[in-house]
Amino acid sequence: MMNELLSTDERAGDTEAEALKCMRTFLALYPKGSIGHFIARSGERFTLPATAPVIERDPPQRCFENAARRSQAFFGHLGYAEGYVYPPGLIPLHHAWNYDLSSGEVIDTTLGWKPGTAYLGVRIEERALRKHLYRTGCFGALLEADGFTPSPFVCAAD
User: Minimal CB count within 10 Å: which of 17, 72, 82, 101?
Assistant: First the structure.
């Protein structure tokens, strides 16, 4: 069943709603107390804008840093969210992104704008983000329920 759930052939025609349903099913398989299980139960849906935003892309594989820096640079305009993203053809990925504070729409400078991508996560208050950065010196997951620790390559000193 899991192979069917994540098959790229099956995903090719999925709508965002179907992708969200698949993602919640996938994440619900994570153990209780894990980030995946928490997001499956408590995460909110974030939507993409109807058209691609005109915004410069950030370096790949640095989503936590990219989103944190953007939310601080555009304080009052962009918020920071963490959770999972489900791009067409892939499995759900632990991810961070920004969202427009007025519309709530996703601004993802790491992955870019990809129609059919589902976002499921939680909004992280700016104060909590700053506290985390000050305390750890690293950009990384604030949702540390399953012991996730930031990779050394995303430390602010680098």
Answer: 17
- Distance between CA atoms of 84 and 108, rounded to whole angstroms? 12
Answer positive or negative: Cα dihedral of 145, 24, 98, 104: negative
Predicted TM-score (pTM) of the model is: 0.79
Tens of each residue's pLDDT in the chain, 158 residues: 333 333 333 433 457 788 888 888 888 888 887 788 888 888 899 999 989 888 899 999 999 999 999 999 999 999 999 999 998 888 888 899 999 999 999 999 999 988 889 999 989 888 888 888 888 787 776 665 334 443 333 333 33
Q: Which residues pair with 84 in a beta bridge?
A: 94, 120
